[in-house]
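Inverse folding, one chain.
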């Protein structure tokens, strides 16, 4: 399946699931207050994970019928599928069970030293473990390669969450990162593997911007992790190290400054951040 077909398939699968999900998203357990104090369903990004499953199941069925050049599940697609489900599960746990008493890396580590394991720390620790498994599969990557790639995936997932402070922000930033990545990956196995995730992400943007649901860690972590994994699977060491440096710098920056304040002070970034937002968000 080509990249374009992957994007379209992911978007259509997300739309199909979204049409059938009102009752699921209206569950009381998912209701959270957004930045304006309105009750919305969180964890809307879990639909991205389910959309990817629909696409991969469809690929398998078509492959069994002799349709397509690669009827089986490729290594790249298997890794993307595992990453989506693993990071989606960790994010969902934080969305549903997490509290607001500890935020950021310092907050979660501080809580640990006080004898409390927060869902945020579980997400960070679990994400690191998932990243190591991804890098070490199917062959064993040791030493520097294992460290660089695992940290890149884990921090990319965390960065997706750090950016999720306004409707549509994580998705917009992900698309800015995805466009050049898609160009360099082309129709490589990695490019084809991540396309359905990004297609589903694009299809969820109107609901996120329209404040009909919140992306949540269930989606933000998945989007970041899949983009990081795309770099790991499809690019050489120079690109991977460069991406890691950028992600580390942004992660450190998020601990000392507010992304929202920086965005609001830069006209171009403010306009991009609020493009397509509700009138209330634009006026905020």
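Residues assigned per position:
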């Amino acid at each position: 399946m080509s990249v374009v077909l992957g994007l379209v398939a992911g978007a259509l699968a997300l739309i199909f699931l979204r049409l059938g999900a009102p009752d699921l998203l209206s569950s009381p357990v998912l209701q959270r207050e957004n930045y304006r104090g309105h009750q919305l369903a969180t964890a809307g990004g879990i639909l991205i994970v389910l959309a990817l499953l629909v696409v991969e199941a469809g690929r398998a069925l078509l492959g069994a019928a002799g349709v397509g050049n690669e009827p089986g599940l490729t290594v790249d697609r298997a890794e993307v599928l595992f990453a989506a489900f693993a990071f989606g599960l960790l994010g969902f746990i934080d969305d549903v069970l997490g509290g607001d008493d500890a935020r950021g890396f310092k907050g979660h580590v501080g809580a640990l030293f006080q004898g409390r394991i927060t869902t945020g720390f579980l997400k960070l620790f679990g994400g690191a473990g998932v990243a190591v498994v991804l890098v070490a599969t199917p062959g064993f990557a040791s030493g520097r390669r294992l460290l660089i790639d695992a940290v890149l995936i884990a921090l990319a997932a965390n960065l997706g969450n750090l950016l999720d402070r306004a409707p549509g922000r994580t998705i917009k930033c992900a698309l800015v990162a995805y466009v050049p990545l898609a160009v360099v990956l082309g129709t490589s196995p990695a490019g084809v593997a991540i396309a359905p995730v990004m297609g589903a992400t694009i299809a969820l943007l109107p609901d996120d911007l329209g404040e009909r649901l919140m992306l949540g860690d269930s989606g933000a972590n998945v989007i970041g992790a899949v983009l990081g994994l795309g770099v790991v699977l499809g690019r050489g060491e120079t690109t991977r190290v460069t991406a890691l440096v950028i992600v580390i710098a942004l992660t450190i920056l998020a601990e000392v400054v507010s992304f929202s304040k920086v965005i609001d002070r830069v006209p171009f970034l403010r306009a991009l951040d609020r493009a397509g937002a509700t009138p209330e968000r634009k006026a905020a």
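The radius of gyration is 18 Å. The chain has one domain: 3-278.
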